């Protein structure tokens, strides 16, 4: 029997019992070409730690078809009884190995994010509410004070810490937003630990946490925001700095996003999405004016937060950013 004939009679590849790592692409090629795991295990890989690469397996397939190249020794099968037939496991559709696609292995961070997002949607009864905030007064206040603030404090003043200050004050007014669920019990958190989603150089997201944000003034929040964001970009965050959050804010407006529905960061009960500030025509005192406006989104867990509580909380944030005097900022 020729090698090609022997391979064609091989059972479909089943990687469950193999101790060797194979990428999804290599597995797909092996299944398509009818290469048994026992046969694949005997190939020498040119990849990291001896892994079999796409180039390795395609070279092997080509050599096998031409009757040349490396030949793997057939697996030893007992003759006293028929070889067991592998039961195909449920798998994703075979990936094309032509040149029009690229298979990318998820890194560990992306796998964690994917699992976290799916689990959140499966756990919480997501509802998202929106308000439109006229941030004219806030923009004017920041433009007036940001230069002196930076000279005096050595910190750049962005809109993020001002919004976080508004959110913290609103949570203090509505403590039943700062909660989570354990079984059939509601856990109310006394500390307000604000997570702020930040982009990593890899493109993944991480959520560093400002601990006890309710004990900080605007300067303290600004320093925490700038420091955590900087060290997130440099991959210098400590494990404790990404744990313990009780409420999360996602500022996707920095990427130009106008409207979106954020996913709750479990086991928290809500997340606030800040969006891009754009100038729009609005009616003020019966007159049409062009003003900077932002959409603010609140996703909340409807199992434990009712619509009235959520929308009133969101309205409180809107009022605070529209009138900075509510944040004790002198206009």
What string gives the helices and strands in order? Answer: HHHHHEHHEEEEEEHEEEH
Distance between the termini: 90 Å
CATH fold description of the largest domain:
Chloramphenicol Acetyltransferase
Write down the Rg: 28 Å
CATH architecture of the largest domain: 2-Layer Sandwich
Structural class: alpha+beta
The CATH homologous superfamily of the largest domain: Chloramphenicol acetyltransferase-like domain
Please mark out the parts with pLDDT under 50 across 5 or more consecutive residues, or reply none: 1-12, 68-88
Would you tell me the overall average pLDDT? 83
Q: What is the name of the CATH class of the largest domain?
A: Alpha Beta
Q: If strands are numbered along the chain, what order do they take across the biggest sheet? A: 1-10-9-8-4-7
Globally, the shape reads elongated
Tally of individual domains:
2
Please bin the fraction of helical residues: 25-40%
Describe this structure as you would to a colleague.
- The protein has 331 residues and is an alpha+beta fold.
- It folds into 2 domains: 103 residues, no CATH class; 217 residues, Chloramphenicol Acetyltransferase.
- A 6-stranded mixed beta sheet has the order 1-10-9-8-4-7, covered by helices on one side.
- Helix 2 runs parallel beside helix 4.
- The chain is elongated.
- The termini are far apart.
Question: Which features characterize this protein?
Answer:
single chain, 331 residues, alpha+beta, Chloramphenicol Acetyltransferase, 2 domains, 6-stranded mixed β-sheet, two-stranded antiparallel sheet, 34% helix, disordered N terminus
């Amino acid at each position: 029997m020729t090698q090609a004939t022997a391979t064609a009679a091989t059972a479909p590849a089943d990687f469950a019992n193999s101790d060797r790592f194979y990428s999804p692409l290599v597995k797909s090629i092996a299944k398509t070409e009818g290469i048994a795991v026992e046969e694949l295990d005997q190939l020498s890989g040119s990849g990291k730690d001896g892994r079999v690469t796409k180039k390795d397996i395609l070279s092997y397939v080509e050599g096998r078809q031409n009757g040349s190249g490396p030949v793997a020794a057939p697996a030893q099968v007992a003759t006293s009884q028929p070889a067991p037939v592998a039961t195909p496991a449920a798998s994703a559709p075979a990936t094309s190995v032509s040149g029009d696609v690229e298979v990318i292995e998820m890194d560990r961070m992306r796998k964690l994010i994917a699992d976290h997002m799916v689990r959140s949607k499966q756990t919480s009864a997501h509802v998202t509410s929106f308000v439109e905030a006229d941030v004219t007064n806030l923009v004017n206040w920041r433009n007036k004070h940001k230069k002196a603030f930076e000279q005096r404090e050595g910190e750049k003043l962005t809109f993020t810490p001002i919004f976080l200050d508004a959110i913290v004050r609103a949570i203090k007014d509505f403590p039943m937003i700062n909660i989570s669920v354990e079984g059939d019990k509601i856990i109310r958190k006394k500390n307000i630990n604000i997570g702020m989603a930040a982009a990593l150089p890899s493109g993944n997201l991480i959520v560093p946490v400002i601990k006890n944000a309710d004990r900080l003034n605007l300067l303290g929040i600004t320093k925490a925001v700038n420091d955590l964001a900087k060290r997130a970009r440099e991959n210098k965050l400590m494990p404790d700095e990404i744990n313990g959050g009780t409420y999360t804010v996602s500022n996707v407006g920095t990427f130009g996003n106008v409207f979106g529905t954020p996913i709750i960061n479990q086991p928290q009960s809500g997340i606030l999405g800040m969006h891009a500030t754009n100038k729009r025509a609005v009616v003020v005192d019966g007159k049409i004016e062009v003003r900077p406006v932002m959409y603010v989104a609140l996703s909340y867990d409807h199992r434990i937060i009712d619509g009235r509580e959520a929308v009133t909380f969101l309205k409180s944030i809107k009022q605070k950013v529209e009138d900075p005097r509510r944040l004790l900022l002198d206009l």
